[in-house]
Design brief:
- It is a single chain.
- The protein is 43% helix and 0% strand.
- The protein is mainly α.
- It has a domain of 129 residues: Cytochrome Bc1 Complex, Chain D, domain 2 (Orthogonal Bundle), CATH 1.10.760.
- Helix 3 crosses helix 4, helix 3 packs antiparallel against helix 8 and helix 5 crosses helix 8.
- The chain is elongated, with a radius of gyration of 21 Å.
- The termini are far apart.
- It binds heme C.
Length: 242
């Protein structure tokens, strides 16, 4: 076999296949085997909580109908909002999977082609170690932009109008309209609509470089040992900021 060049290539091919399997599958499994998977409740962070409260302010009637009355003050309010936030993330993710948004949007910033300049920090394995990434939403096509750092990049209003009718904001957009997440107009999102917007706002909200905007105020939930903020990342996606 080794007297022919093709035989050498064949054996080398098998060797490299084995090497790739060990380095890309076996080693990561062994490395992350003992890491607990985060639940939706554990994924609620100050940034996504800010968006939840912002949705309640912008769409008060829809929010009330979807999630009920927010308790007035105190720890009860915090616990209530955190739980509703986790519930909404689960519902939103279900809608995202069900609508096959992943068919056109990836959720993975690759360490090639300067992707980090366009979309933000390169994806890390730990970001996918949670309930909302089962199965992972990496996606295989990019008809639209990568969404893994979409959170905070646009306002909730923008998302509502865009989801209702993408063409009204981006002329010629091939993204389909999703009117069934609204009661007739973009200012009346229903429970699944609010949840889907919250889910999109959650994407990347765990990063230090979450792009703050408008009248963002750090939530009191921010832990005192929060790591220092890093400089904002350059965002050069088409369309720019709202
Ligand atoms: C047929 C492909 C396609 C599908 C399916 C699709 N999108 Fe899009 N999406 C696009 C394209 C193309 C753009 C860029 C043009 C635009 O903004 O409309 C886009 C843009 C977006 C943006 C704005 C990104 C930014 O900041 O510029 C968001 C958010 C988004 N899509 C979310 C979704 C969600 C949520 C779903 C599922 C309910 C979905 N998309 C389904 C193609 C798609």
């Amino acid at each position: 076999m080794l007297e022919k060049r093709s035989g050498v290539f064949f054996i080398a091919g098998l060797f490299f296949f084995g090497l790739a399997f060990v380095s890309q599958a076996v080693v990561p499994i062994l490395m992350y085997r003992d890491q607990p998977e985060k639940t939706a409740e554990q994924l609620v962070n100050p940034n996504v909580r800010f968006q939840m409260e912002d949705l309640a302010k912008r769409f008060p009637e829809s929010f009330k109908e979807a999630f009920g009355d927010i308790p007035a003050v105190g720890p009860e309010r915090e616990a209530w909002l955190n739980q509703r936030c986790a519930d909404a993330l689960r519902i939103g993710r279900k809608a995202y999977t069900g609508e096959a948004c992943w068919h056109c949007h990836s959720q993975f910033v690759r360490p090639v082609s300067n992707e980090d300049r366009r979309w933000g920090p390169v994806a890390k394995a730990e970001e996918y170690q949670n309930e909302l990434q089962r199965p992972v939403m990496f996606g295989t096509r990019r008809v639209g932009p990568d969404l893994s750092r979409e959170g905070g990049r646009r306002s909730n209003d923008w998302h509502a109008v865009h989801l209702f009718k993408p063409n009204s904001l981006i002329s010629g957009s091939p993204m389909p309209a999703y009117p069934w997440y609204f009661e007739g107009s973009p200012d009346k999102p229903n429970k699944r609509g609010l949840s889907l917007i919250l889910y999109v706002q959650w994407l990347g909200s765990w990063l230090e470089s979450y792009p703050y905007y408008e009248d963002y105020k750090a939530s009191p939930l921010r832990s005192p040992d929060a790591r220092r903020p890093s400089p904002a990342i350059a965002v050069t996606s088409e369309g720019g900021k709202p």
